[in-house]
Amino acid sequence: MHATGVAPIAERDSAAPSLLIVDQDRNVLQTFREAAHANGFNAFAAESVEHAYRCLEAQEVEAVLLDVAATGGDGLHALRHMKSRWPEVMVIITSAQPTVPAAVEAMKLGAYDYLAKPFTAAELKALLQRVQEELKTTADRGIAQDRLPAAAAAIVDRSPVTEIVGRSPAMEKLYRIIEKAGQSTHPVLILGESGTGKELAARCIHFSGPTRNHPFIVLDCASLLPGSIEGELFGYVKGAFPGATRSKDGLMTIAEGGTLFLDEVGELPLNLQGKLLRAIQEHAIQPLGASKRIPINVRILAATNRDLEHAVAEGRLRRDFYFRLNVLTLRIPPLRERKQDIPLLAQQILDRLVRVSGRPHSLGEEALEALVAYDWPGNVRELESCLERACTMSSGPVLRPADFPSAVQDAPLHGSRSLPNGTQVIPLARLEKQAILSTIDQLNGDKLLAARLLGIGKTTLYRKLKEYARE
Question: I need a surface site. Which of 102, 212, 310, 465 has the fewest CB within 10 A?
Fold first, then answer.
């Protein structure tokens, strides 16, 4: 074994990508290593996540096959650490006890895939081939393989996940603005409530324009301590401050030729606003402790869910900084203003959940009505969480309103009526249908028992079910 706790299966081929396999089972390790080597990888193995970290520190690794058990059961924590410290590494999670929420969260954190164990040799081969193709595509794009430090709250994104869903007039207008913004290099200010998809809009702008083959870097301005943001943005030289034992490139240097997306830009401290404004205007930065300025070519996209004009009036945002960011403005409409898009969005989310879990799910008519009736204060992000919960809680393949959170269940449905005092009245036919279907669902499909408990004849019950099937 090497000093790092891992060893290659054969002599390293400098032209082949490296795959690190992390698993507690030595038999699995050997099988996976042989399969990886046969498919053109330099295969390394580690029996714990600590060994994996040492390997990533010691040598170049393009992809990691990470078993949840090898992380002590906290695969998401290990994934988060890897994507923070080595954002360019492709991480595939494997688990003998997969869950839909864990899989969805892993994909959100940047996992390339989430696989249920065990899987066949053919499935493993297909996975390795997909990884090879993705690595080749990334290399062909010519994107630099710069590494970010552990403290960076940013990701270098090379995947054009840019599919915005919606056909409402508000979204059609948004598409036109994005298309125009994508062809320019001016700063863009993206406004919208939390959960509306501001980062997705920024991705669309980046990947639809001349910067598409260069890095897309995200900095969450609200997640870093004020004292660390300057170093993250502009970098520093060795000895710039106590603890600076080596020089480090800032995000604006790493984003060269591409895009820096500043999420929650209104959280930037005032002194940083001035320095960032100067960097944008002069196309140059000065790392901490450096004596010279460095030229840069970076496009700035910024987003916020706050009223920046109000922040300017209160003195929390520099007026000149605000005007510099606000060359182009793009507003993402909240979900309640485009309810006609909810069926499309819900189906897209559900399709993704089905692909991840392998369990078939579909939306019943009443479930879809309930989704459209709700106002979604948390917007698309809340809709995603609702459907994730429903897929986990549902006892059958068809989702029903009872599978949703109580706030969604209690939303007034289309076709209901209101009393003068505002109280919603649901028609008896709808209440009857809800009672019948809910009872059958809770009894795991036992229709005869459901009829007895509901106090109706079985003939009546079957007639009702036929009527519902025709609706």
Answer: 310
